[in-house]
């Protein structure tokens, strides 16, 4: 069984997608990965759909140029506005986003059919999660909350500071006040899992907290199996290459928080996507 030893490409506007990469590497220990963080142009969540689509095309062009067998959009904003564009542009290279897996996990978790979604402004305005959830559960009550400040806090590595807790309280307390409050909270931005403790302290223990990283990793594993594209090489051949569009030093320092392990600065290559 030869398998497909080519790497899997993963990209995000910054470091948040490293939470998805972390889940992918744990689920697929035999695979090689190429990760791109477009740190020079984050956040994507406040930009227009046309701009995000252009950035996403540049990011995937670099990854496809690295010979990847699949692209994972580890960014909710880009998944919401650019998935179809990327799938059409890079066919037959499969492109998988995080919205559908996250929506499926939210539907599986809810008991009262009331689901809250925390996301960036762009993802909320596009109603990508609401549509994906209601395709699976037509009578679901979906409330969305843009949480742009969370992205900045996460990118600073401020996981549980007083400022983070105050921001969580500001965003979340109004959503969960009342008897008809949601019982499920979808973290609709890959930056947000690093703030999970602060979010949990705010909403309490009775709310199901859904992180799409694990579900996305499962979707990627299923897609590789269906296509016969899983690597058959030993786990010792597994590797991760990192690209960043700004400050490899900062990427390595803060990215370690998201990835859950140290990143050596020398392992982060600086690239300019405008020349990709």
Overview of this structure, please?
By secondary structure, this protein is an alpha/beta fold. The chain folds into two domains: 152 residues, Rossmann fold (3-Layer(aba) Sandwich), CATH 3.40.50; 114 residues, Rossmann fold (3-Layer(aba) Sandwich), CATH 3.40.50.1860. Helix content is 45%, strand content 16%. It has a six-stranded parallel β-sheet with strand order 4-3-1-2-9-10, with helices on both faces. The chain has a four-stranded parallel β-sheet with strand order 6-5-7-8. α2 crosses α3 and α4 crosses α6. It is globular.
List the helices and strands and how they pair.
Layout: E1 8-12, H1 18-27, E2 33-37, H2 49-65, E3 70-73, H3 76-90, E4 95-96, H4 99-109, E5 114-119, H5 121-126, H6 128-136, E6 141-146, H7 148-155, H8 162-172, E7 184-187, H9 196-203, E8 208-211, H10 212-227, E9 240-244, H11 248-259, E10 268-270
Helix pairs in contact: 1-10, 2-3, 4-6, 4-10, 8-9
